[in-house]
Amino acid sequence: AQSVTQPDIHITVSEGASLELRCNYSYGATPYLFWYVQSPGQGLQLLLKYFSGDTLVQGIKGFEAEFKRSQSSFNLRKPSVHWSDAAEYFCAVGPFSGTYKYIFGTGTRLKVLA
Amino acid sequence: DVKVTQSSRYLVKRTGEKVFLECVQDMDHENMFWYRQDPGLGLRLIYFSYDVKMKEKGDIPEGYSVSREKKERFSLILESASTNQTSMYLCASLAVSSYNEQFFGPGTRLTVL
Questions:
Q1: Cys-Cys crosslink for B75: which of A42, A95, B13, B67, Cβ 3.0 to 4.6 Å?
Q2: Three-class SS state of A93
Q3: Would you call A111 an interface residue with chain B, using a CB distance cutoff of 8 Å?
Q4: Taking CB atoms and an 8 Å limit, are B94 and A100 in contact across chains?
Q5: Fold of the domain built from segment(s) B4-112
Q6: Which residues contact B6 (CB under 8 A, 6 or more apart)?
Q7: 8 Å CB contact of B99 and A51
Q8: Are strands B108-112 and B10-13 parallel, antiparallel or unpaired?
Q9: DSSP A11
Q10: Could you tell me if A3 lies within 8 Å of chain B, comparing CB atoms?
Q11: Between A78 and B96, whose confidence is greater?
Q12: Does pLDDT of B99 surpass 80?
């Protein structure tokens, strides 16, 4: 069955430190993969997406993610975190063949220390 | 910019009431979605619609229904609200041509007393 796992529920980093948020997926074919960010009280905003080609994708706000097929992972990274990056981050996979259904991970809440 | 709006940011209802959550998108998208977001559970799909008057059940449709009479509007209906439907509800839209990026509304936080 298809699934998305974000193993870290909470992550705390200091401002200026690097960040890596983990995402693992289970899917039979080459997936379409997404990272979304949700600031407090807001809806989700797309950070980046992967469909094919270069396995390192760049997104908005200085984020990047790397698709690793051998590890079924799509981890999100940022070299230097800013206080405004504090938010909840969701990894998603989809849509699945013949439908427009997506599966979202349970989210990782990022706290940034000044 | 694509805009997805939801009729209320916060809503408080009583058990047994019929509740309507409205979602409107302004980009002529074919597909629209209703998700429920709960802590530790992420987003779970309630229903989606791929055309006017067309709908498909998601993973947790029990206790909900939907209506899509116009392309831009997708309504979620709680026929008889219950306390376990207290949650954040997110609407999203998607155009087939946009490489499958969903655009989300700001959410409606519903409390059922």
A1: B67
A2: strand
A3: no
A4: yes
A5: Immunoglobulin-like (2.60.40)
A6: B21, B22, B23, B89, B91, B105, B106, B107, B108
A7: yes
A8: parallel
A9: E
A10: no
A11: A78
A12: no
